[in-house]
Write a structure and sequence with these properties.
- The chain is mainly alpha-helical and 116 residues long.
- It has two domains: 43 residues; 52 residues.
- 57% of the residues lie in helices and 7% in strands.
- It contains five helices and three strands, in the order H-H-E-H-H-E-E-H.
- It has a three-stranded antiparallel β-sheet.
- The longest helix is centred in the N-terminal third of the chain and has 28 residues.
- The relative contact order is 0.09.
């Protein structure tokens, strides 16, 4: 075999080996997708599945099937406490805390209505 052809084979083999090593690294990197990393951060921060502690009223209603009128009624009747289950954000929108909502549904965070 001529020397030039042997060098080409060695270069091809080296390139092939580098490609295989890169593929292995890429497969390992797939295990750490941004979604999985975000999920770990959310768990560490105590956030819900969506990664947010507070979600807009509209999103809450989409997720739970609740209605905006029902949420407003709970606020008016003081069944929900501002700052616990809901709050008005700096933009004037109402936000709901999904974790506090779940506790309320399960009966762990009941707030007695204020006598009028």
């Amino acid at each position: 075999m001529p020397k030039a052809q042997a060098n080409e084979i060695e270069l091809f083999a080296a390139a092939l080996l580098r490609s295989v090593e890169e593929m292995k690294r890429a497969e390992h990197a797939v295990l750490h997708t941004p979604e999985k990393i975000a999920g770990r951060k959310a768990e560490a921060l105590g956030a819900n599945e969506s990664g947010y502690r507070w979600i807009k009223l509209k999103k809450h209603c989409e997720i739970t099937g609740d209605t905006p009128n029902a949420v407003h009624a709970r606020r008016r009747k003081r069944i929900w406490t501002d700052g616990v289950q809901c709050r008005i954000g700096p933009d004037g929108n109402i936000y709901v805390n999904p974790e506090a909502y779940n506790r309320w549904i399960e009966g762990a965070s009941t707030v007695a209505p204020v006598d009028r």
